[in-house]
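Re: xanthosine-5'-monophosphate structure - here you go.
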Amino acid sequence: MSAPVFILDFGAQYSQLIARRVREMGVYCELLPYDTPWASIAGRNPGAVILSGGPESTLAPDALDIDAGYLTSGVPLLGICYGMQLIAKRLGAELVKLDHAEYGPADVRISAQKNALFEGLGPTLRVWMSHGDSVTVLPPGFEALASTDRCAVAAMGDATRRIYGVQFHPEVVHTESGTELLRRFVREIAGMPNDWRMDSFVETAIADIQANVGSANVLCALSGGVDSAVAATLVARAIGTQLTCVFVDHGLLRKDEAEQVVVAFRDVLHLNVIVVDAKQRFLEKLAGVDDPERKRIIIGHEFIAVFEEESKKIPNVGFLVQGTLYPDVIESKTPQSKAGHKIKSHHNVGGLPERMNLTLVEPLRALFKDEVRELGRVLGLPEHIVARQPFPGPGLAVRIIGDITPDRLHVVREADAIVRDEIDHATLSPHPWQYFAVLTPVKSVGVMGDGRTYANLVAVRAITSEDGMTADWARLPHDLLARISTRIVNEVPGVNRVAYDITSKPPATVEWE
Ligand code: XMP
């Protein structure tokens, strides 16, 4: 694999999108904090550097800045929005604050037709703008490449030094020819080959894992989710039986899920899997607990306790595999990441490495979610694991509002199986991102077979989303909803009413607890 493209992140909402676009061209890239010193990456022989946009103004006294090394390194540079203004400012331009900021669609007129970035793209492009400052006097050596009614320099370039800037956002879909502009910069101006492929990723990752782990034993907490499944499979390819996967069945899984996970990993992929039946233990700890946060905390603690007990039985363990993804890595590094309010205590194995003195192996750290799915397919994982919808760590516990009992678990599990079965078999566009049943604590009166019933209310939740951070309720066809409702009431004992959740996130969350 050739040299990477680095993206310096100044906190734009779209920074990850730039990384995606570059990867989609078959070029490997990494997103780094804006203040990464040039010296720390120079040794990796960068092929190009892209400076992202950001919410701040370069005219502010404490404006975010870059290491001067980038500007003198000779590496091709592309600044987007804030990134362009910063390059301009650092190389001697003049900038002003606009009387009226320019947000949303704008038509840019291309003034330099003989230019590697814009040549042949037509006299105007409809682009997406989001800025309050503008370059008025270009830095020495630069020419203006495009303008709008409000912004005299909507793009600039110095072909000799291969330094370019665009005031608009080529990475968003609303910008006409945006992907093509990025492609021209990366592939033609910077001359990067398109050699980023999953197969080459697998080879490099396997070699890295082998070098890193040596002869030590490695543990992995398998949840059945896509990330841990792919991470475990990749590590097993590298070190075979040195890897032991521990699958804790906490009894809060969906219908037939534990069996499916065991079959897939032990029988099909031949991974070394220890299954711990901890159903009773979790149920006892959760008895009488109806507070959502307490449920989550109990499950998290108990999970760690069970995992620790099992892993003590394996000698010479030095490493723990985690399915950390690229967005999780970036989250904790960008200038935007702030402590924020705690909404829910998410269940993960975060506390384990320190407690057990283990070093982390995170082979998916460079990948986005859909790249992880692609990797899973390349590694031969079954489609029902690779295409799995997200499922929370605390499982069905957060889909039973109120007390968790074996009977209530049975109700929500059966109702959930019906919701999934019906939606999985429907042709929907877009297909909902996540869909499930919730058992509410509400009982209501009904009539069945001429007799009165007083039974449970089940809620159905189906959402569209890209990442679970925001979501909208899925506009499911009425006849599909009718089938789901009829089947739940007829097939699940103890349910006489079904409601559909029509709340987006925010203000609601995806899960009810
Ligand atoms: P919320 O309910 O926070 O859910 O809007 C957003 C997404 O996260 C999933 N979720 C979890 N995932 N551990 C997880 O691994 C958890 O504790 C957890 N809680 C919620 C939820 O299913 C949705 O996809």
